[in-house]
Amino acid sequence: MQHLFACLTLLMTTSLAQAGPLGLKKGDHISFVGNTLAERMQHHGWLETYLHARFPQHDLSFRNLGFSGDEVTTRLRSQGFGSPDEWLTKTKTDVVFAFFGYNESFAGKDGLPKFKKDLDAYVKHLKSKKYNGVTPPRVVLFSPIAHEDLHDKNLPDGKENNERLKLYTAAMAEVAEANKIRFVDLFGYAQDSYARSKSPWTINGIHLN
User: Fold this and answer.
1) DSSP-assigned letters across all residues of 134-145
2) Using one digit for the tens of pLDDT, what is the confidence trace for 175-207?
3) How far apart, in Å, are the Cα atoms of 166 and each of 105, 136, 186, 187, 192?
4) 204 in helix, strand or coil?
5) What number of CA atoms fall less than 13 Å from residue 128's CA on the CB side?
């Protein structure tokens, strides 16, 4: 999915009206947090590769703290694992790439107010911390990708899923704008790209291949 990650790099490093450029700095420590989309990026290093290529002199560091099933307010871990704040402090995080919204979307339209409230509180919490010991982290929110219809009788076509995901993507954009942070709309980009692609992007409609 190198085309997707090239798009992410472009979106994160160019100016947006509500947030301006991300502004990566030399020596930045970037931590991925969130759901399975983030966790599965451990399989392939496309995003890290593109950012290193874009900023070859920056000596960037990456740490993937994604965990399948994670939600903004739900992070199930073994006893003694450590809190999200403790891990962001251990990794001396300067930049947080946050991938949420997919798991929360199953609450449907009725769950939107709680999701927006929780996400807003989470972003404000991140910005109140100094995980690197000096400055608050720069935060980038990533929406879920769209559900791909693989035309497989053993898999759902994703229509209902996408109706929910579209709502939650819009909610994430609103929270990002309100907090003046960057937002990457993976849902819209993926949905458009599926229609143009001659080969599948996912293994099951929801997880990138």
Assistant:
1) SSPPEEEEEPPP
2) 999 999 999 999 999 999 999 999 999 999 999
3) 9, 30, 10, 7, 13
4) coil
5) 7
